[in-house]
Request: fold
Amino acid sequence: MSRTALINIDTQQSFFHRDYWQETDFAAFQQAISTLIAGCEVRGVPVVDIFHVADSGPFSLESGFVAPMPFLQHRAAVMFYKHVHNAFTDTGLDHWLRSRDINHLIICGIRTEQCCETTARVASDLGYRVTFVSEATLTFPMTHKGVTLDCNALRHRTETVLEGRFAAIKTVHEILEL
Reply:
Protein backbone atom coordinates (compact mmCIF):
# COMPACT_ATOMS: atom_id res chain seq x y z
CA MET A 1 0.00 0.00 0.00
CA SER A 2 3.01 2.28 -0.46
CA ARG A 3 1.38 4.27 -3.28
CA THR A 4 -1.90 4.63 -1.37
CA ALA A 5 -3.49 7.46 0.62
CA LEU A 6 -6.59 7.46 2.81
CA ILE A 7 -8.83 10.43 2.00
CA ASN A 8 -10.96 11.30 5.04
CA ILE A 9 -13.69 13.62 3.78
CA ASP A 10 -15.59 16.09 5.97
CA THR A 11 -15.50 14.16 9.24
CA GLN A 12 -15.97 17.47 10.97
CA GLN A 13 -17.92 18.96 13.87
CA SER A 14 -20.02 21.11 11.50
CA PHE A 15 -22.41 18.20 10.95
CA PHE A 16 -23.43 18.14 14.63
CA HIS A 17 -25.04 21.53 14.00
CA ARG A 18 -27.15 20.62 10.95
CA ASP A 19 -30.90 20.01 11.31
CA TYR A 20 -30.63 16.59 9.62
CA TRP A 21 -27.98 15.27 12.07
CA GLN A 22 -28.93 12.00 13.73
CA GLU A 23 -27.08 9.50 15.87
CA THR A 24 -28.63 6.39 14.27
CA ASP A 25 -25.54 5.10 12.41
CA PHE A 26 -22.94 7.23 14.16
CA ALA A 27 -21.51 4.61 16.56
CA ALA A 28 -20.93 2.10 13.74
CA PHE A 29 -19.39 4.83 11.59
CA GLN A 30 -17.05 5.91 14.42
CA GLN A 31 -15.86 2.33 14.90
CA ALA A 32 -15.36 1.67 11.19
CA ILE A 33 -13.53 4.88 10.35
CA SER A 34 -11.39 4.71 13.50
CA THR A 35 -10.35 1.14 12.66
CA LEU A 36 -9.63 2.10 9.05
CA ILE A 37 -7.55 5.15 10.01
CA ALA A 38 -5.58 3.25 12.67
CA GLY A 39 -4.95 0.37 10.27
CA CYS A 40 -3.75 2.71 7.54
CA GLU A 41 -1.45 4.55 9.94
CA VAL A 42 0.15 1.27 11.08
CA ARG A 43 0.73 0.37 7.43
CA GLY A 44 2.34 3.73 6.64
CA VAL A 45 -0.58 4.95 4.51
CA PRO A 46 -0.87 8.74 4.82
CA VAL A 47 -4.21 10.04 6.04
CA VAL A 48 -5.42 13.18 4.28
CA ASP A 49 -8.09 15.20 6.06
CA ILE A 50 -10.47 17.21 3.92
CA PHE A 51 -12.78 19.79 5.50
CA HIS A 52 -15.73 21.49 3.81
CA VAL A 53 -15.85 25.26 4.27
CA ALA A 54 -18.74 27.62 3.50
CA ASP A 55 -19.13 31.38 3.80
CA SER A 56 -21.56 31.20 6.72
CA GLY A 57 -23.20 28.79 9.16
CA PRO A 58 -21.65 25.76 10.85
CA PHE A 59 -19.35 25.10 7.88
CA SER A 60 -17.75 28.56 8.06
CA LEU A 61 -14.30 28.86 9.58
CA GLU A 62 -15.67 31.53 11.91
CA SER A 63 -18.11 28.99 13.44
CA GLY A 64 -15.26 27.05 15.03
CA PHE A 65 -16.88 23.78 13.88
CA VAL A 66 -14.58 23.16 10.90
CA ALA A 67 -12.50 20.81 13.00
CA PRO A 68 -12.18 17.03 13.34
CA MET A 69 -14.95 15.25 15.21
CA PRO A 70 -13.78 14.69 18.80
CA PHE A 71 -13.39 10.90 18.47
CA LEU A 72 -10.69 11.30 15.78
CA GLN A 73 -7.24 10.97 17.30
CA HIS A 74 -5.00 10.62 14.24
CA ARG A 75 -2.44 13.05 12.96
CA ALA A 76 -3.15 13.85 9.32
CA ALA A 77 -0.27 13.91 6.87
CA VAL A 78 -1.90 16.98 5.33
CA MET A 79 -5.20 18.83 5.49
CA PHE A 80 -7.11 20.67 2.77
CA TYR A 81 -10.18 22.92 2.79
CA LYS A 82 -12.71 22.49 0.02
CA HIS A 83 -15.60 24.71 -1.05
CA VAL A 84 -17.33 22.28 -3.43
CA HIS A 85 -18.48 18.66 -3.24
CA ASN A 86 -15.22 17.04 -4.41
CA ALA A 87 -11.87 17.14 -2.65
CA PHE A 88 -9.87 18.08 -5.76
CA THR A 89 -11.22 21.36 -7.13
CA ASP A 90 -9.07 24.26 -5.89
CA THR A 91 -7.51 22.34 -2.98
CA GLY A 92 -4.05 21.26 -4.09
CA LEU A 93 -4.86 17.61 -3.29
CA ASP A 94 -4.03 16.34 -6.79
CA HIS A 95 -0.62 18.04 -6.74
CA TRP A 96 0.13 16.71 -3.24
CA LEU A 97 -0.74 13.14 -4.26
CA ARG A 98 1.13 13.19 -7.57
CA SER A 99 4.25 14.71 -6.01
CA ARG A 100 4.34 11.65 -3.72
CA ASP A 101 3.62 9.21 -6.56
CA ILE A 102 0.35 8.14 -4.92
CA ASN A 103 -2.01 6.49 -7.39
CA HIS A 104 -4.51 4.65 -5.15
CA LEU A 105 -7.05 6.43 -2.96
CA ILE A 106 -9.18 4.95 -0.20
CA ILE A 107 -12.28 7.08 0.38
CA CYS A 108 -14.10 7.47 3.72
CA GLY A 109 -15.99 10.21 5.56
CA ILE A 110 -19.26 12.13 5.42
CA ARG A 111 -21.67 12.17 3.34
CA THR A 112 -21.69 8.89 1.45
CA GLU A 113 -23.65 9.99 -1.63
CA GLN A 114 -22.42 13.56 -1.76
CA CYS A 115 -18.82 14.56 -1.08
CA CYS A 116 -17.48 11.01 -0.74
CA GLU A 117 -19.10 9.76 -3.95
CA THR A 118 -18.27 12.94 -5.86
CA THR A 119 -14.62 12.73 -4.80
CA ALA A 120 -14.48 9.08 -5.87
CA ARG A 121 -15.85 9.95 -9.31
CA VAL A 122 -13.45 12.87 -9.83
CA ALA A 123 -10.49 10.83 -8.58
CA SER A 124 -11.31 8.07 -11.05
CA ASP A 125 -11.60 10.59 -13.89
CA LEU A 126 -8.18 11.96 -12.91
CA GLY A 127 -6.68 8.47 -13.27
CA TYR A 128 -6.48 7.31 -9.66
CA ARG A 129 -7.40 3.79 -8.62
CA VAL A 130 -10.19 4.30 -6.09
CA THR A 131 -11.41 2.12 -3.26
CA PHE A 132 -14.64 3.22 -1.59
CA VAL A 133 -15.24 2.01 1.97
CA SER A 134 -18.98 2.47 2.46
CA GLU A 135 -19.04 1.25 6.05
CA ALA A 136 -16.58 4.03 6.89
CA THR A 137 -18.89 6.67 5.42
CA LEU A 138 -21.91 8.29 7.03
CA THR A 139 -25.03 9.82 5.59
CA PHE A 140 -28.56 10.83 6.54
CA PRO A 141 -32.01 10.12 5.01
CA MET A 142 -33.01 12.32 2.06
CA THR A 143 -36.44 13.05 0.64
CA HIS A 144 -37.22 14.00 -2.95
CA LYS A 145 -40.67 14.20 -4.54
CA GLY A 146 -42.23 12.62 -1.48
CA VAL A 147 -39.93 9.60 -1.47
CA THR A 148 -37.45 9.20 1.37
CA LEU A 149 -34.31 7.18 0.90
CA ASP A 150 -32.92 5.90 4.18
CA CYS A 151 -29.20 5.58 4.85
CA ASN A 152 -29.04 1.97 3.66
CA ALA A 153 -30.76 2.84 0.37
CA LEU A 154 -28.41 5.78 -0.20
CA ARG A 155 -25.37 3.63 0.59
CA HIS A 156 -26.61 0.88 -1.76
CA ARG A 157 -27.27 3.41 -4.53
CA THR A 158 -23.78 4.86 -4.16
CA GLU A 159 -22.15 1.42 -4.23
CA THR A 160 -24.22 0.50 -7.29
CA VAL A 161 -23.18 3.52 -9.34
CA LEU A 162 -19.51 3.44 -8.28
CA GLU A 163 -18.68 -0.30 -8.44
CA GLY A 164 -16.86 -1.26 -11.61
CA ARG A 165 -17.09 2.26 -13.05
CA PHE A 166 -15.39 4.63 -10.64
CA ALA A 167 -14.27 2.53 -7.66
CA ALA A 168 -13.95 -0.85 -6.05
CA ILE A 169 -16.20 -1.24 -3.01
CA LYS A 170 -14.42 -2.80 -0.02
CA THR A 171 -15.00 -3.26 3.70
CA VAL A 172 -12.60 -2.04 6.35
CA HIS A 173 -11.52 -5.64 6.93
CA GLU A 174 -10.84 -6.18 3.21
CA ILE A 175 -8.74 -2.98 3.03
CA LEU A 176 -6.64 -3.90 6.05
CA GLU A 177 -6.05 -7.42 4.73
CA LEU A 178 -4.48 -6.14 1.48
Notes: The chain has five helices and eight strands. The first helix runs from residue 26 to 42. The chain has a mean pLDDT of 97.
